[in-house]
């Protein structure tokens, strides 16, 4: 009869924790924070192809708050990336940047089967996401 070796206390505990662990999500189990868009013109259900709030001071202030609550953990405080995710200060301004931003925030990014950017469509409103884009343009660097 074969016997199974017993694990010492800490090894048994570590094995038990590893076997019972939940799958790891790309951004942990962080709950997206709601963004109060009071003061912004409602945009409706159909997505705009271009940022309707470009240069709008109210949108920039709302986007500042929304970004710091939902994006800064990966993209860095004040949009200064620590290397985990792209440094969004260098995202193109105007239509080209809007197209990339919209695709990424709506649908997220899956790289080699791993979620690197969660999809925010249906999680944050179009108004909130365009306000965040307005904030990013205000922090733009060449």
TrEMBL record:
Keywords: Electron transport, Heme, Iron, Metal-binding, Signal, Transport. It comes from the Bacteria. InterPro entries: c550_proteobact, Cyt_c-like_dom, Cyt_c-like_dom_sf, Cytochrome_c550/c551-like. Residues 58-140 form the Cytochrome c domain. Residues 1-26 form the signal peptide. GO terms for molecular function: electron transfer activity; heme binding; metal ion binding. It holds the Pfam family Cytochrome_CBB3. PANTHER family: CYTOCHROME C-553-LIKE, MENAQUINOL-CYTOCHROME C REDUCTASE CYTOCHROME B_C SUBUNIT. This is Cytochrome c-550 PedF. It comes from Methylobacterium oxalidis.
């Amino acid at each position: 009869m074969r016997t199974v070796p017993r694990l010492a206390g800490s090894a048994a505990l570590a094995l038990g924790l590893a076997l019972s662990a939940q799958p790891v999500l790309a951004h942990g189990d962080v709950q997206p924070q709601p963004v109060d868009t009071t003061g912004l013109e409602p945009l409706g259900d159909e997505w705009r192809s271009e940022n309707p709030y470009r240069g709008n001071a109210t949108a920039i202030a709302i986007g500042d708050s929304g970004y710091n609550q939902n994006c800064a953990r990966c993209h860095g405080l004040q949009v200064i990336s620590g290397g985990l995710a792209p440094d969004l200060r260098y995202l193109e301004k105007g239509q080209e940047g809007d197209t990339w931003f919209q695709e990424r925030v709506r649908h997220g990014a899956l790289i080699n089967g791993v979620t690197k950017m969660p999809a925010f469509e249906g999680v944050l409103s179009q108004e909130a996401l365009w306000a965040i884009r307005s904030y990013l343009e205000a922090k733009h660097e060449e």
